[in-house]
Amino acid sequence: MNELRLRQPRHSADPRAVRYWTVDAVIGAVVVVVPLAVAYQLTGRPAALGAAAAGAAVLAVALTVFAPRVYYRAVRWEVTDEAVYTRSGLMVRTWRAAPLSRVQTVDTVRGPLQRHFGLADVTVTTASAAGALKIRGLDHEEAARLAEQLTLLTQATPGDAT
Amino acid sequence: MSDTYRTSRQADPREGEPRGHDMNGPYQTTQQADPREGEPRGHEPGWERVDRRTAAVSAVYSLAVVAPIVLAMSKFLADRDVPPAGIVAANAATALLVIGATVAYDVVRWRKTVFRVTAGRVEQRSGVFVRTHLSIPRDRIRSVDITADPVRRVLGLATVTVGSGEHAGAEGSELRLDPLTKDRAEELRRTLLDRGERSRQEQSAEGDPALATLRWSWVRFAPLTVWSLVGALVAAGAVYKALDLIGLNLLSWDVTRRIWQELQEMPLWVAVLLVAGAATAVGTLGALALFAETWAGYRLEREAGGTLRVRRGLLTRKSLSLEERRLRGVEIAEPLLLRTGGGARVRVVATGLGAPREDQHEQVDALTPPMPRATARLVAAHVLRTDPAAAFDRLSPHPPAARRRRYFTALVCTGLGFVAVAVLDTLFTWTPAWAWAVPALTAPVALALATGAYRGLGHGLTGRHLIVRSGVLARRTVALDRAGVIGWQISRSPLQRRSGLLTIRATTAAGKGVYELADVGTDQGLTLAAAAVPGLLSPFVERTGPPPPGG
Lengths: 162, 551
Description:
Distance between the termini of chain B: 36 Å
Organism (chain A): Sinosporangium siamense
CATH class of the largest domain in chain A: Mainly Beta
Strand content of chain B: 15-25%
Protein name (chain B): YdbS-like PH domain-containing protein
Strand order of the largest sheet of chain A: 2-3-4-5
Radius of gyration of chain B: 29 Å
Oligomer: heterodimer
Number of strands of chain B: 22
InterPro entries (chain B): YdbS-like_PH
Radius of gyration of chain A: 20 Å
Structural class of chain B: alpha+beta
CATH topology of the largest domain in chain A: PH-domain like
Keywords (chain B): Membrane, Transmembrane, Transmembrane helix
Number of helices of chain B: 15
Keywords (chain A): Membrane, Transmembrane, Transmembrane helix
Low-confidence stretches of chain B: 10-44, 167-171, 197-201, 355-362
């Protein structure tokens, strides 16, 4: 059975991204679970609220322990001379490809937490309203290099990118 | 706090080409000197004013403000036993004041508004309190639209809107010349859109440039569009407002109660039929009226200089033009109701079309009124300069797994309906037996929709276009210029993976920005996408050996 498939993009995220995503998920989990638990204690322990808090806690454990590792394996990227190619998605896998000749902007984003881990995300947008490609969890120096390289390649191609 | 560094395309190396959503558009809404002030001024006509009869136009429109004031004041004064002469005097004074103020303001506006067309740009200086200087390079002009409402038409005037297509509809992105004489408007339109001799010859070779003209038999499709609902509301609203103005409150408490009592005295089925019939009648009338107002005199033609022009309108005449180089494809839209009646309409997929403006009943991308499906196909093909049969007749179906997926979704939805009723039944001891009929009745509907949704799926590839068809409630056939595809998004859920399906989205700068090919076979879809845009996806597609891919 010879089937066609999309090969995986060459590079993975920086391994430190797993820790960053874990910390990010823990913060998110705390923000949701703690108020639920407090409310449960304060309101005379209604069963519905207890169930909600327990469910949120289970979900939070899954999201903090497993999701970052699975996500690390899912997220991949590659830049060739002609195109940007990414793969992402925890459950629904999504591959995106955009030709460099159609790239309009290249953004690097570093939040405070990302800066602590020395990471950055790169967003590549095209003229399409739905065309943004995100490369997540890169080493921040690599991200800066990549953005610079993309900008150079992009400007080398004439045209209006629509 | 997060740092964001953005680098974007700087100066466009090919000045004069259309640009997409650039950060620095071509507009200068400043009061500073035009940076191109130094360019040759050989045949500049100098600054020009809009037509002075704008004062008459605003006088007529000020009556819309005067009329309710006069009515309200007459009633107020009459109630207080003011003699008729006093009422007339007060009204006349108020009317004169309002009309005078409006006209005076408009005259000032007229004096302060000047425009000129130079070799390189169209410029306008305007503004009574805040002066603005709007300047659009001529090679960036994408549309020149002419609108003549009844008042301006009677005076032989029209409004010209010059758009450069970027951020359409945004503040300051358009240059509005209001009003010009009809001839000057048409002359300006030609000057600004015609870009060379070559295309003029091309046109004379083509003969009649009309791609479509109105047939009044198409009015039969009018009640089958959503506009029948909108039309009914508009018509009802207008009547209500008019009657309210002269002091007749149609929906007063008494009237409503009397109608309600009458309805209650009838047998239920008569009442239901009566209400439904009345609603349908009003809706149909509204739809017919709106169709006539929007599409009377409709004519779609291809013009010299590569422009598509739509002319239409009964009372308010409009001329809309769209540059062909902004065109990235067309869409044949068949909403369920219209499709049942054998109708369809054609829309453009073009870059730089904004959201519809408030005063537009019709969407900006509408190229045709609702028309017979076969005609719509022909028009679409003509607009694309392609063969209708090659484009729309040979669409490949999607694999049977796609049909199974739709039936599965239908069954899950029905099942959830039953579960919901069961939960209600346990929570509340008394649940009427007919509640079970709701999910039972939705089952056949869901299955019918699933069948329709699968039949709607289809795709094809011609020399220049990627054809994508989908939808059951709103079926759309989109022919997208392959050169206009600026990226792919391919996604696969765990369930799709088991069935060997993919969802492929083509991204583009035009229209909705993304066009979807749902549940296509893996091989089928990847082959299509790789072929549609040579070189983009093919480096990333590979053949697997016997073990299924683990990605």
